[in-house]
Design brief:
Elements: H1 4-8, E1 31-39, E2 43-51, E3 54-60, E4 72-81, E5 89-91, E6 98-110, H2 115-121, E7 123-130, E8 134-141, E9 150-155, H3 166-169, H4 180-185, H5 201-266
Antiparallel strand pairs: 1-2, 1-6, 2-3, 3-4, 4-9, 5-6, 6-7, 7-8, 8-9
Length: 267
Amino acid sequence: MSLDQYRAKRDFTKTPEPPPRVTKRPAGRRLFFCVQKHLASHLHYDFRLEHSGVLLSWAVPKGPSLDPSVKRLAMHVEDHPLDYGEFEGVIPEGYGAGIVMLWDHGTWEPEVGDVDEALRTGDLKFQLDGYKLKGSWVLVRTRRYGDNRGWLLIKHRDEWAGPVNITEFAPLSVKSNGNFEDILAADNPAIWTSNRPATGGETGAMLQKVVERALALKAERDKGTRGAAHARRASGATRAKRTQGAGGIRGARAAGRARAGHRRKRR
């Protein structure tokens, strides 16, 4: 597995994404998977499976479906480093500019003897054990695209299948329990007030609302932070005055006792 494409598409002096690194895991350790909800030029879900030290990756425009009758298009994209599996944040510019949410993660197990052969033949069956996605699934290559990038992500019929729209039922991050607005507000929403990674159309309108809400949320948080800081300063000043007052009273009493003792000695 190679991270050359991942490296070539990014400027790591500008993106907070983890650098390209193939990671060797101890033998016998369960394999990692994740799904990242990515609001960029288009909203999509990045489905990633750990294999041979990297994350095999597919972009799923409509997200996974728990309904076995629904076949979700999954475009095979460049491998990502394993560290990417915990990434959540804002990509300010360049390739993939947008907001990344860690929508689900957990472990996976192949239902085939040879993963590389399954990838070659275009039929990878596997089990997922995540917070939102569980049970048996399959990725099947489709002939719709001549460059072999087109696959279909399909849920198998089992106890975890059903008619629930999981992307709408469980839209929040499994890492921060936040939405896009929360993630952007924790970063710097002002960077997109005039220069956004997506403009126009449904995605541009969605991002516009996210930016507006994030700006309002950040302003509210900043106001709360300033209010809390002011309260702490006021409380500290009050304690200081009380301490100084108590010290003044004690000092006056001590001075009074000293003067009284001096008068008694003179008599």
